[in-house]
Amino acid sequence: MKLRPDFHESWDAADAAFEQFLTTVPERRQQLRDLMARTGGPELDGSAQSLNDLSDWSIEFGLSDQDDGMDWRPLWLYWPTPEELALKHNPPLPDRLYRLWELTGIYLADMYLAHDPTLQWVCWRSNGRIDIKNARFLLDQGLQYEPLDPLQVGNIGIISAYKGVYQPTALNLNNKPPDRNRLYNWYTRWVNQRHELYETKPRSWQAAPTGRKANKRIGHHPGDFGQNHLP
């Protein structure tokens, strides 16, 4: 049974978006640091505490309605067509909120990769045809059912909180504050549990980040794909 590539038109399209995403990672990394410096944010030193520092700044910046000076959209999110947007009750949210989401997620991914360089960015294939993880841009840690999803974890609730502040309609009332501990909690939990996970669960890796080989999992580490883009 053929796997479905999430919202992408085909697996070729999903793989192409993934490859394009990887080429942007170094630029995104620098954009985050430049934006934080321009807006008075803290310097990020790669420590676990820096995740809370990043969260505090992200919340302040995200809810301030400042311009980030950028013009791009995350490739791993579905963007509604104008016709679909016309059916929504609220106006679309600023693209900068989704850019902030990606920038935060990439920093978290770098934290994972720095702690364990055997992790690999992949365009994920799962066993299930309609698995929600299919075609997501994930970090394969050698566990068939437990990839790391730093891009999703990067959403610490700023978008929902923004809706509550700027679009407080009856259909969209959300007073829940962002979770400033989310990045720190996810990362430190993984650091503390990874050895037990690796020792108690069967290991296998996606044989390639994209293409037909990506549909196969192998019982040994496939080697560096050369796509992690760490400094």
Strands, helices and their partners?
Elements: H1 11-38, H2 48-62, H3 82-86, H4 95-115, E1 120-123, E2 137-140, H5 150-153, H6 158-166, H7 182-200, E3 205-206, E4 217-218
Antiparallel strand pairs: 1-2, 3-4
Helix pairs in contact: 1-4, 2-4, 2-7
Note down, in words, how this protein is organized.
The structure is a single chain. With 231 residues, the chain is mostly helical. Helix content is 44%, strand content 5%. A two-stranded antiparallel sheet has the order 1-2. A two-stranded antiparallel ribbon has the order 3-4. α2 packs antiparallel against α4 and α2 (48-62) packs across α7 (182-200). It is globular, with a radius of gyration of 18 Å.
Mean pLDDT: 91
User: With helices defined by DSSP (H or I, 4 residues minimum), what is the helix count?
Assistant: 7
Contiguous uncertain segments of 5+ residues: none
**Secondary-structure element pattern, one letter each:** HHHHEEHHHEE
Percent of sequence in beta strands: 5-15%
What structural category do the secondary elements indicate? mainly alpha
The helicity comes to 40-55%
Largest pleated sheet: 2 strands, antiparallel
Specify Rg, calculated over alpha carbons: 18 Å
Number of strands: 4
Strand order of the largest sheet: 1-2
CA-based shape: globular
Distance between the termini: 40 Å
